[in-house]
Every structure is written in C-alpha cells, then in structure tokens.
Amino acid sequence: QEQGCAIYSLCLRLSFKSHIFLVRGSLITGKMAEMDDHHFETGDSGASQTYPMQCSALRKNGFVMLKGRPCKIVEMSTSKTGKHGHAKVHMVGIDIFTNKKYEDICPSTHNMDVPHVKREDYQLTDISDDGFLTLMSDNGEIREDLKVPEGDLGNSLRSDFDNGKDLLCTVLKSCGEECVIALKTNTALDK
C-alpha cells in the first residue's frame, strides 16, 4: 500500500511532457511525442442512415428498410387484431437501387427502420468511354463517380445524349449507395 501511495504522489509531480502508467504493477513511462504517435481510422460523420418509425405510421409510396435494403413501399395491408395481441402489417417493397421485390410482416406497434433518401437532379454534360457520367449540380460542381445505369434506362440515356438532347439525371442516394434512377429533358434551357 505504501508503494501505491508513492506512485500516486509521483504521478501528481510529473511534468506536462511525460506520462506514467501503472500496468499490472509495473511502472511505464513515456514521452509525449511517443504517446501521440497513433493512427486512428476515420469514420463517417456519425449520422444514422435510418430512423425508426412505428409500422402503423408507414404509408404506400413511402420508404422502409426490408431485409436490410432501402425499399419503396408498393403494397401494404393490415390484418385484424388476433386474440393474442397486435394487428400485423404486411408490406411489399421494391429495392430503390436494384428493383428487387422484398416482403415483410411486422406487428403494427413495432418500429421499422426508414432510410434517409436524398433525391437530386444533375445536368448530364458527358459520358466517358468507360461508362462514367459527368454530372453538374445546380451550383456548378462536377462529379464523375456514377456509371451509366444498366438496362433500358441506360440505353435511353446513351441514345438521347448521342442525339444531342440536354438531359437531367435524377440521382437517388440512400444507405451509402447512389445511382441514376430517372432522366428527363432539361426544359429550363428552352426558356
């Protein structure tokens, strides 16, 4: 116990530049420069990609997480309350990025995760040889990190761009994913 008191009083008298640690009864000292030489991985801002909402408050054409994927609700039905408790809500949703269909059944009083979904229009300025889009936002910032979507939308985008049409691409962002989900002719330039 005397040794513990001596170490404690020694810790109180240390200068700012060095540190003392007591690890399993052994005294370890180190200089400030040695202690600060650590590398920490950076993460996201800490903002959640989803928020909870009671199942009974969800609506058709809204968004919900089904099987871990952000989906748009296309069908919803509620069963009557049974003798053992809650009414159940049956939901059918379409993945907003892959168009895959998901279903889930949840008690109406339980919470479900709802994804934060951001929708933004960009003016298409170019398509690279390797299939990346050059998109310009309203404030003039350029981004070149999205590929031409697959399927009919991608084919339509390429042919309209090749025919000289001025296009706006609608980009949907949710849960760390982004993709072009729609396009339209830019009528703002006609005015």
Written account of the structure:
The chain has 191 residues and is mainly beta. It has two domains: 66 residues, SH3 type barrels, CATH 2.30.30.30; 69 residues, OB fold (Dihydrolipoamide Acetyltransferase, E2P), CATH 2.40.50.140. The protein is built from three helices and 13 strands; from the N terminus they run H-E-E-H-E-E-E-E-E-E-E-E-E-H-E-E. It has a five-stranded antiparallel beta sheet, with helices on one face. A four-stranded antiparallel beta sheet has the order 4-5-6-7, with no helix packed on it. Strands 1-2 form a two-stranded antiparallel ribbon. A hairpin with a 5-residue loop joins strand 10 and strand 11. The longest helix is centred in the last third of the chain and has 12 residues. About 15% of the residues have low confidence. It is found in: Cytoplasm. One of its GO terms (cellular component) is cytoplasm. One of its GO terms (biological process) is positive regulation of translational termination.
